[in-house]
Fold this protein.
Amino acid sequence: MRALNKTTTGSPATLRLPDLLRVPELETLSIAEVVGAVLGDDLPVRFTAYDGSAHGPEEAQHVMHLRSPRGLRYLASAPGDLGMARAYVSGDLVITGAHPGDPYTLMKVLTKEVTVRRPSPVELATIVRSLGWQNLRPIAPPPQEHQPRWRRIAQGLLHSRARDAAAIQHHYDVSNEFYQHVLGPSMTYTCATYATEDTSLEDAQEAKYALVHDKLGLREGDRLLDVGCGWGGMARYAAKRGVTVIGATLSRQQAEWAQDAIAREGLEDRAEVRFSDYRDIPESGFDAISSIGLTEHIGVRNYQSYFRFLHSKLRPGGRLLNHCITRPSNRISEHAGEFIDRYVFPDAELAAPGRLINEIHDAGFEVRHEENLREHYALTLRDWNANLARHWDECVAASDEGTARVWGLYIAGSRVAFEKNSIQLHQILAVKPTSSGDAQVPLRPWWSR
């Protein structure tokens, strides 16, 4: 960059930031030049700004345009994914070449081809001078953003009942109509299983429920507890096959929709979905428990109490199927990034599958099988993005444009993460052995893949 090639007196390592801000040779950069200084000259997308500046190839497929000073303040005051999300969700950063409901191609390019540079002290001083101190002061975020972690203490301690309820309601109580457009008729918000890449979303979700049902060995007359049951898809699938099911969810909207669906399908005598914390289910002696997409919200430090509770709810010989997103390594932080934590899953935590298996064993279970379905989740997210883009106007009407933008960004980014093995999806099948050690399972896997 022209301004960053000039020399200054003294060693940058010995200069303080206030000294650097007074160096007369430092020029003022345009907004696009600041972007170039941080992201490099080989940016695969084009960036333009309201000050008329531009950076990146003119022929680029994607153009990111910063429309306003408010967007600049979002970017400057929270560098990284949080600032980008704020500017994008608020509409201050607009993108051409990618539908807001399906920005996958852009997310893939940014993730794989863009590396953030760490500016030298002189470069940092130039950037700060160019942006101006006023743009480094945070302003109110878009209304879709959840409170930062430190402010959530007012809702209770981390993973207390009240705080968990607030986090679940933030994400799941958008509107049932919104979810119907994105998830499709199955209203299933978890990883599907695909026979081929061309399998429809509905068939893949039906196959996932069949896989869980068969792994658990459910038969007519059995009793199933489905914790974190969402809109009751698993409960209704099992009930149609003669299983008696209790489901629990902390989302009132989910519970109401699920009970209506149960009534429409004539399953009231076998299925019930309660607006309840799973810990408040008094019944026990279940033949099986399904936990599909709940462990992410439990908290890593609560795994042991969680699995011990589930163990206590099963009869001897009963089975547990735990299906959840995981980290590829225990060396990665269990906490979600700022964008996911503030806009999508507040307080969510992920661990590697080995940690889960250890905790399940230590709770008294015997693990019999596990498998990684991360490619299947990438395909599921592909289809959710397609639904969101196809029903964009309806989704905006059912929520608001900022919320719809959050979802487009989150789904596309998650798809990229599953494809590049930044996150995984593991199903773990475990059994509560009898007092004599009998696991009551066949010698070889008994379910169809």
